[in-house]
Amino acid sequence: MPAAKTTPIESTHKLVGKNYQTPDLVAKVTGKAKYAEDYRVDGMLFARLLLSPMPHARVVSIDASEALAMPGVKAILTADDLPAPADGMTDLGQVIPANKLADRSLTMEPMYQGEPILAVCAVDELTCAEAIEKIHITYERLPHVVDPFVSLRPGGPNARVQGNVWIRPETPKAVPGQPPPLPPAAQVQELKWTEEDFAAAKDGQMPMGKPAEEWSFGDWEAGLKKADLVLDETFVSPNTSHQPLETRTTMAYWQNGKVYVHTGTQSTAQTVPAIARWLGPNIKSPDDVVVISEYTGGGFGSKITSSISAIIPCILSKKVGAPVMMRISREEEHFIGRARPSVHGRMKVGFTKDGRITAIDMYTVCDNGSYDAQGDGMTSGRIVSLMYQPPAMRMRGVSVITNTSPRVSQSQPGGFQGIVMMEPILSKAARKLNIDAVEIHKINSPTGKAEVGPPVRGKRPYITSSFIREALDRGRELFSWDERKKQVKRSGTKVRGIGVATSAFVGGSIGFDGLFVIKPDGRMYVQSGIGNLGTESVHDCNRVAAEMLGVPWDKVEIAWGHTGRNLPWACPSGGSQTTHAMTRAAYITATDAIQKLQQIAAKDLGGKPDDYVVANERVFRKGGGAGMSLAQAAKRAIELGGIYDGHELPKGINKMTAASATALAGQGLLAVARDTMPRDGLTHSFVAGFAEVEVDLETGKYAVTDYMAVADVGTVLHPHALGGQVLGRSVLGMGHALGQKWVYDQHYGVPLAKRFHHNRPPTILDVPVDMKWDAVNIPDPETPIGARGIGEPPVGAGCMAILNALSDALGDDVFRRAPVMADTILASLEAGHPMEEGLTAHI
Amino acid sequence: MAIIRDIMPAFELFQPATVGDALGLLDQHRSDAWVLAGGLDSFDWLKDRIKRPKVVIDLSQVSELRGIKEVAGGLEIGAMTTLTEVVRNPIVKEKFSILSQGAELAASPQIRNQGTIGGNVSQDARCWYYRGGWKCYRAGGNICFADTPTAVNREHAILHADRCVAVNPSDSAPALIALEAQMVIRSVKGERVVNAEDYFVGPAIDITHMTVLKPGELLTAIRIPATWAGAQFYFEKVRDRQVWDFPLMNVASAMVVNGGNIEKIRIVVNAAAATPLRLTAVEDAVRGKPRSVATGEMAGKLAIVGAEPLRYNGYKVPLMRNLVKRAISGVEEPKWA
Amino acid sequence: MGLIETAVNPWGQTVPIHIEFYLMWVAAIGGLAFLMVHAIYVQFVAAKASHAARISPALEAQYPPKIKRHSLVARLFHWVMSVAMFALLITAFLPRMGYPFAWVEYHWIAGLVLTASIIFHIFHATFWMDFWSIWPDKEDIQEAKWRFLRATGKDAPEPRKFGKYPFENKMYHLVIVLSGLAVTLTGVFMMKRVRTPFFTRNPYLFGDMTWGMMYILHGLAGVGLIGLVMVHVYFALRPEKFVITKSMIGGDLDRDFYLEHYDQERWKVPAAK
Hints:
The complex is a heterotrimer.
Chain A: H1 25-30, E1 45-51, E2 57-63, H2 65-68, E3 73-78, E4 88-89, E5 95-96, E6 116-122, H3 125-132, E7 136-141, H4 148-152, E8 165-167, E9 187-189, H5 195-200, E10 213-217, H6 220-225, E11 229-236, E12 240-241, E13 250-255, E14 258-263, H7 271-279, E15 289-292, H8 311-320, E16 324-326, H9 330-336, E17 339-340, E18 343-351, E19 357-369, H10 376-387, E20 393-401, H11 415-433, H12 437-443, H13 468-478, H14 481-485, E21 490-491, E22 494-506, E23 513-518, E24 524-527, H15 537-540, H16 542-549, E25 556-559, H17 578-605, E26 612-615, E27 618-621, E28 627-629, H18 630-640, H19 655-664, E29 669-674, E30 684-696, E31 702-712, H20 719-738, E32 744-745, E33 750-751, H21 756-759, E34 772-775, H22 794-810, H23 822-831
Parallel strand pairs in A: 1-16, 14-15, 19-20, 24-25, 31-34
Antiparallel strand pairs in A: 1-6, 2-7, 3-6, 4-5, 8-9, 10-20, 11-18, 12-17, 13-14, 13-16, 18-19, 21-22, 22-30, 23-24, 23-29, 26-27, 27-28, 30-31, 32-33
Chain B: E1 12-14, H1 19-29, E2 33-36, H2 42-47, E3 55-58, E4 68-71, E5 74-78, H3 83-88, H4 90-95, H5 97-104, H6 109-114, H7 117-122, H8 128-131, H9 172-178, E6 182-187, E7 190-195, H10 196-199, E8 218-224, E9 232-238, E10 249-258, E11 261-270, E12 277-278, H11 280-286, H12 293-303, H13 316-329
Parallel strand pairs in B: 1-3, 2-3
Antiparallel strand pairs in B: 4-5, 5-8, 6-7, 6-8, 9-10, 10-11, 11-12
Chain C: E1 4-8, E2 14-19, H1 23-45, H2 57-62, E3 66-68, H3 72-93, H4 104-128, H5 138-151, H6 167-190, H7 208-237, H8 242-250, E4 252-254, H9 255-261
Helix pairs in contact in C: 1-7, 3-4, 4-6, 6-7
């Protein structure tokens, strides 16, 4: 077996593109890092949750008298104690009306088994538990459904009293001169398909009744008609819990009207307004919320702005007048910790005999879970339209509410499911048309400013750049693809196969702030509002500013993870936005510092600001001559005051940034700015994954024997961190191929697989020993540093490179849903046709 | 009463230092007592507040229950010997390698460091309905939730189900049965020794227990006779993950082959039924036959006679057939291996 | 200690699952107590049956020496049923008494035999037997009252002799009918919960509460049958009833016994040829 190779990441920069040791590393590997659960405060009380035993019910009465009479029990908190859901507001001041059907952390109408009904606060957790066992709740059981297709059947049960499907009304037309109207809030309605809809689907095919949402571009019908090969395939992707190692434990206490919230969140700055919104009238303004989250043990989209359950200890703490810690157990994490929604998808794809896609007709049914409308089903079409560049496409979908735990975005939300639906078809077409699998991916891959999604106001949007074809070429070479193709495939009871998959997702946003101070000690004090969720972007992005100012990394201090430390507004650390958004913010802020340094130098040393350059911790005249150190300039900035030391702030920066800058004013040269730089296109990142698998035909077991991923993420910012992301997220995707899923008992509507060993996230022994990664390292033309985000696209590549390798080994008709486990393979090989149930959810 | 999980209820904890004290406590508390060995099985039950013993007798301080002794060419393994110690023991490796293989494939390194051989063979079923606290037959109720038209039962039994369809998940048990091991059971009344294959009990006889242990009794040691030392062994476990997973099925065989013919054989499959299954019909059928693929295939077909799959565990039938075949004729490794 | 055992179902609801199994001991002890009290009563307290005057030869001549009491079919039914009943009781309760064995299959097979025999009996009794002869009527109740009054030393008219089935026999049959129907009807549904060759197992045929009530009924009828069977066997073995027991084997009674113990008006027997 030829080994995969890598090439070293080249960089002409001093800091950007270079490896270094992040400031949080030692604490993490020595166990000194403090996570929310590690904090202890004098007089701290504990809280535990009482969860609904029923998948759908109404709480008729709660009798907690016996519990409250127990010594050590301090209070109970029910949904009645929570503030009503508050409206939100956009940056333009438009009101986002509160979703009255949203998850509120406690409820009187539980929508899934495991939904919290109330919390008990007591001196310790054992007392909480004993008190909970003394609480008597009378429920009125309501109809339940855990399978979207059961709910869509004529006369099928609805998961909510209001209906079973989220329907989003049309967005009103824009009025000239007014900001574009917000899309109206989705509503819950009833949608049933007909018996004919169900009867029309052959065995293993997904029925397709009336959709809730639909878009299209081009003449897809003509595209399918003129195709040389049309494939009509159904595939099912699994529900997968996010399963961060750190459960969503939170400890909160109040001091002088402020609430201090120790929690694990993906985003530090953005968590403040999120918690403020849930607290409602309990606080005067978001300034009263202090979020402490120096370390977060994973989120993967489930803790973008902390979690909704964090509100419980906050309000309990206010009620009892003492700090309250609410630890979340692994099983509770399964219930309230969110998950990626399963998507059932059916696609008709036309190909020319050269392998080029002529048109796609795609339909997805998303298992929405119990609460907010999930966009995964429709997003999957958007990413398919980008990744495989069909000239024409129709996308339809419906997101069916079920009485299962709530869903939320998980790494590559929707994009993942799109890749999962499409990749088996592309591989099958390659086999049928006798085209190399890498080649067919290349033929259909985007390049340059490729179009994405449906038309917006008559025109299809496009992306900033794509170099996925280069990534495919690089991977083909490094993985020795052509050599492996010639390998012996079958020997003994083993058969092996190779697979390639491409994957894409949003890779960055714009418009956020940066803030740092150069103090008279010559050091650079960077304030970072980014969350420390394990990706290292909280540190990495700041390397851009240090590099631009010529400050060596050991002279950079970073404040992070505590909004009491005067942090600026930052992007949410989710959706792979951060590297792109926050290197831009760092760039614009460093530019602000350079301009201020040039002005100070010109004031003191004569000439125009433009005559000066900043490098090697100095500002000096171009071509040498007069100059001053950054330390001297910092001192001068304090003397000059005004814009130089932060006493005067630019307009347009976020309120939180302004407050932090004001607090830091007068300490040195203060640089603060908002990213208002233009960007032509929507930023997306890409990954090509290559895998080899070996299947034992007698047991159905298979092993991933090799894996390699090549990323197209623009300029590489920090190779080690990037490698960790590319392979780490590939493994997240591999979990979806190898065994991760939910299991429910349909009769009672309750989950069976609730613990790690039931849900089977992959372990280090389930993935190849020596996985390799590489990056094409070509800068994105629409952002000054050229770096895009990486978190999302490896997931789909990791999953589907494996499943494509599996069909290369076993042929086309062995599996039709992910994950693919030994039982599926063995049963299908034995029977000679797919043995899986095509539609049943949660098996 | 509302249900809450993941917090251990209070109980009286005893940590006896000798077997005698442990037996005395067991006799005193009878069915109120819970025996704690490595805790890997127990803590799930206790933390979930499903099993609520009044008294827990922790054996971790009983040093006489630990360790591996050589006895008359065979071994006596203390019930509290950790799986890691069993795996690493040089004599086990040399003479009874099937046991070190089986023990090494159990769970994960961390669990094997803590889990004991006695606990591994005495562990409770892992049916997720039962472990979820559902009041099924095995929990003293009157229903099997895993054998209903809608149940998800890919990990359940294909053989000898009687109302309950749970399986025995032990990885060391089939190896011990293949090695003709004996279980030493003590109580205040004295000692009794049962053959490893008779240590396990199916739902037809006792639907709420996995073993023949009665209240007041303690498994103190496992004796492995010299009989099969150095025989030809085969052990294979098929699981979903490469670590930290229970078997979908496992197989253990010990064979003495003379002139290419199978002279003596014991073959055991686990996770196919509620007890490890010693396949005596297969043993009888292959004895005297050449150790060949044809014999293996014949044995595999014979092994699955009477199998009754459920909705989602049909794959276990070919899996058992193929594993039995491999346990007899070996597995053909690919050229590239 | 209650009468029924409950369980918490997967929705957290408390539902009955079966009777407390100590009730089987209650039934057994109850049955034993009854027959001991009865035996003592008959032995020491009850007035000895006064023998009526010698039966006239004229009357005797009207009847054959052997009086047909149970047809072959009826006897076969009785013994099939009794074997099934014993099998059911043994398979149900022996494992609970500490003698474990694989009982389920034997239990439902015996249950099916019992059910089939009962169905047969219903048809047979309805169309080929004197259907009403076994059911207590007004007269029976009136005479039972008189008998009770007389036994307790009160004044009451003298009751007539019995028809084919004495009142106690009829009452026993009634109770057996009720418990037998309860146990078989619930038992047939319960077969949906175990593996049989007849249909797919489906414990969700009814809701948890309905099933619970069914199990309770099955259990109550089951333990009730322990007592009933004990009493039945006891009477069958009592010396003064043994003639009747023998008739369940051979089918016939002696003419003398018939004439002595039965009212010829109430149990009409075809005259001798």
